[in-house]
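Researcher: Next entry in the queue.
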Amino acid sequence: MSAKKLNKKIWCKVADIPENTIFMMGVPVRGFFDLWPKRGLGNYLHAYFTLFKGDFSEMCYVRKEFDEQADFLAKKMLQNTVWAMKIIDNVEYWSKEFFKVSRKQYQTNVKKLSNLQLANLLKVSFKAHQESHAIGASVSWHADAEKERITKYIIEVIATAIKRNNLNFLTPVIFSKLSTPLEQSYVEQEEVSFLKIAKQIKLQRKILKTFIYSDLDILEKELSKIDASLYKLIVKHYQNFCWLSYQYRGPAYSLSDFLSRWQAFLKEDSNPQKLLEQIYKKHVQIKKEQQQILKKLKLTKKEIDQIKLTQRLVFIKDFRKTALYHAMFCLEPLFKEIGRRLGLSFYQVTAMDYLEMIDAIKFNKFNPHDLNLRLKECAAYYDGKNYIVYTGNEFKKFIKNITFERKNIVSTNEMSGTCACPGLVQGTVKIINLPNQMDKMKKGDILVAHNTNPNLVPAMKLAGALVCEAGGLTCHTAIVARELKIPCVVGVPSVDKVLKDGDRVEVDATKGIIKKISN
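Model: Structure for this entry, 519 residues:
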């Protein structure tokens, strides 16, 4: 797209993604243009770029194109739930394939491979990455992004049914329950495994004392000598779940991270068996409640299918993103080996697009200086034909020709959004968008973010309530809030800019209202 054409468009920044990489974004972005039209997902996008600035990135679209694409997707999905379900089933299949091929990549001894073999190994996950993350982004993110088209439609369906049947139900509570998927997430799987090991530790008094009273570094060094079988279980747990916090460029959880969690848990003298029973009962209870609610709402078949669609959307958004984080973790040894051979850092390697990385491996074609500039600031642009990463003066010229829509951030004592999980809480605001900000989080604080991601889950577990700017039933904050039963409001405009650390607020998640009590 020429500079003149760029300047005529009004652009919008739709989503903030912390700790993002050019490699991760390049694969799905091509799919937005190359795959969506072929799969009946719409053909409204003609230009896109990711704006990278240090640890943060923003997804930038032409406003008119983004809205037309989202309107098309939401309308088609709600009208043709069978088609939408087939898309989701396909995304689930490719996400599972993404797990498989990523695991094989991780298990490969990359040091023994030739450069050509390294390039071929990199290619192995491309299709699964694109099918899972590009196609998945259409139905589980784009359709509901910003204006919460699907979320608000389903809320209205529920509200109308409650009124029609004269039921004493709160719409946000019913929406939260009906949109909760029945599948167990990886975060829950980790929690179950964690509690089972905690249960074993509590059954052995000597081991329990060792965990409670030993310094963490001593515990890590001596545990294998104290109880070899328990140590194997802990190491297996670590290997199975260390990648959960990885996101796009790490770090993963360390063994000491897990040991410190068990230590803190055991010091609290919590009952792991009771907590396990609560988890086991939760999904049975949710299923039972959903059946009872649907019976009382007396919805049409089409409306029931739409409710089921929302459950699948919440599930697939979490599942495909988890597959992506796992894949990025598994690719780290490969990226480091590529860096070693080319004289580049791990971060420089991830600043390459997929095709650029192939050229670098096969033909030694790369520019270290340009990669360093990308890590500071750049724009990765694609229009369906040309993929260009603008840096330095070219970046400044490119941005100069971009007109972003204006967003007025108004300081106010009351904000509103959509209830993701009901409840009423007062607490102190902590703005947390990056893992290095989690240390300030105390139990009962109100975690406020643009959006959350898996490496913020430890802080989210401490929160009295969760509030974020990103909206919709499939945003990460909403998904985790339902899972942890934490009051949550999503889709609150500029909330992480209006509120500040230390503000005292009341979060009435049921009504979707946040009131500032004091500064």
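Model: The chain has 22 helices and 14 strands.
Researcher: Noted, moving on.
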